[in-house]
Amino acid sequence: MSRPNVGIFGLTGCAGDQLVILNCEDRFLHIIAALNIRDFAMASSDNDSACDLDLAIVEGAVLSRRDEEQLERIRARSRILVAIGTCAVWGGIAAMDGDTDRSQLVRDIYGECGEQFDTTPARALHEIVGVDLNISGCPIEEEEFLSGISNLLNGDLPIAPTTPVCAECKMREYNCLLTERVDMCLGPLTLGGCNARCPGLSIGCVGCRGPVDDANLESVTALFMENGFGREDIARKLRTFAGLRVVAHTLSEDES
Ligand code: SF4
Ligand code: SF4
């Protein structure tokens, strides 16, 4: 079987997901052996920025017209497009204040010279182009990435996690921070796949993998309030990684 042509790209973000790929270390050599990596600016200075791609892997959110144009070019040359990381899947931290007036935000930070910057509200990839597979996480989990790519290479669609962080936390028999320590842990609302990394270190989940389907937002926010947290604090925490921003917005509106 010929090796598929692959491109790995970063839009606006911290490049942490691309770093996870490079940090696969010995297994990265197997990836290179299985893939024909043609365009990966973070790892190589010898890139083909025009060839057709079987697989495009894209990290980062769309925060400018330049990002948007780059993403459209990537989509046009790729058979399969995979969004990696919470910025690409949900808009990420940059989208936490997506409802704020952008030009005011730019003026507040950069003053009048901010007007010249090419900047747009943060958007996830699926808001601009069709995405074939989302792999969430801030950053992505190495195992989930490797198994996802292996599945795609075998012609299968990877099976994504569907249960919340709480399920993985219970499986590992960690003490519950929400009920036992009265922390504002977002585990019940957040997509699992990280093996409850933060509760395992006695730190409440901050929702970095984005929302799980069927999250019971009403019941969890009611529990937070029973535990003494205010609506504004809950709203602020929920919108940190943007995936739960809509709920956060509703809570803020209820407050006003
Ligand atoms: S500590 Fe957090 S993730 Fe674990 S069971 Fe409690 S609420 Fe869920
Ligand atoms: S526990 Fe929550 S914040 Fe921590 S890695 Fe998992 S999803 Fe992210």
Summed up, what is this model?
With 256 residues, the chain is an alpha/beta fold.
Q: Give me the secondary-structure category.
A: alpha/beta
DSSP strand content: 5-15%
Secondary structure tally: strands: 5
The CATH class of the largest domain is Alpha Beta
Bound molecules: iron/sulfur cluster
Per CATH, the superfamily of the largest domain is: NADH:ubiquinone oxidoreductase-like, 20kDa subunit
Which architecture name of the largest domain does CATH use?
3-Layer(aba) Sandwich
How many structural domains are formed by the residues?
Answer: 2
The chain-level mean pLDDT equals: 91
* Distance between the ends: 61 Å
What sort of overall outline do the alpha carbons produce when their principal axes are compared? globular
Low-confidence blocks of residues: none
State the CATH topology of the largest domain: Rossmann fold
Radius of gyration: 20 Å
Q: Taking strands numbered 1, 2, ... along the chain, how are they ordered across the largest sheet?
A: 2-1-3-4-5
| Topology as a string of helices (H) and strands (E) | EHHEEHEHHEHHHHHHH
The description of the largest β-sheet is:
5 strands, parallel
In which range does the helix fraction lie?
Answer: 25-40%
Number of helices: 12
